[in-house]
Write a structure and sequence with these properties.
Oligomer: single chain
Mean pLDDT: 84
Low-confidence stretches: 317-322
Radius of gyration: 20 Å
Strand content: under 5%
Length: about 325
Amino acid sequence: MKNYWKGMACCLTAAIAWGISFSVMEEALQAVDPFNFTALRYSAAGIIFVVVLLYKEGASAFRLVGERYLLAWLLGSAGFCGYGFFIFHGQQLAGPDGARSAAVVIATTPMLTVLVNWFLRGIAPTRISLACIGTSFLGVIMVITQGNFQALTGHSVTVSSTAFLMIGAISWSVYTIGNAYFPHWSAYRYTTMTTLLGLITIHLVNLSLRLTGVVPAPSTEAVLRVTPHLAYMILIAGVLAVLCWNVGNKIVTPANGVLFLDFVPVTAFMMALIQGTPVGQWQWGGAFLSGAALVVNNLHLRQQLFLSEKGTKRIPTASRRC
């Protein structure tokens, strides 16, 4: 039980850190494009991950002989290159409403993960879990729109920005589910190795964009300007949040952990509250609805796990009677 609560706390910590990150990126994207920013961010985070893994498990943890390194590279490319490039490029294209739009799209990740998990692993969700996901997402929409659901169509979100945001969300869904393909890897090893392998893709794509003139190399002045933003995105939204996310999902499973991403837009709403923006009844109600759905789904999955373990324990007894 104690370990389960630890997993929930880790997932919640990651979600809150990412919820704040969209406001941080809103300012950073005015100085540096998302592609160069992502390369700088994960290059620094990767160094920290290496130090952490060396301390935790030693040099042997970096050996990939006999391991599924190609799959780890694909997952790292999806999680760090795919998410970092697409979600923040989509936020940039969406303009002034980019942070809020990105937060709303991230809230769809639980539904996307259920579908991806179903497609990749053949694990069909229960009706209760589907209902909880839908209810939680409805709560998020209530928070964002303040009850005015027509406001969703009033945001400055183009088809292209929405497409990039959705691809970014799907990329993170794939990365989260990929954790289950490495059950013998610790969360520290999965985080570090996928980051290092994903960095290969990040730098190759970034180099290609520079050589073709799509994006210029950032100036020293621009990098210095976003130093505080880089610090947050590296240390908090990068190292702390990603480690917490992978540790948490190892414990509570990805199917349960992704529900915590509904707290990303709720965190954005809380940031608005701190900044003095009025909070209405629809927002409070939506936050409660999202949280209640999360609790119900947790209880449901824990009950399923208990019944599954109970049934498994009964099999040997029945066999002996035969």
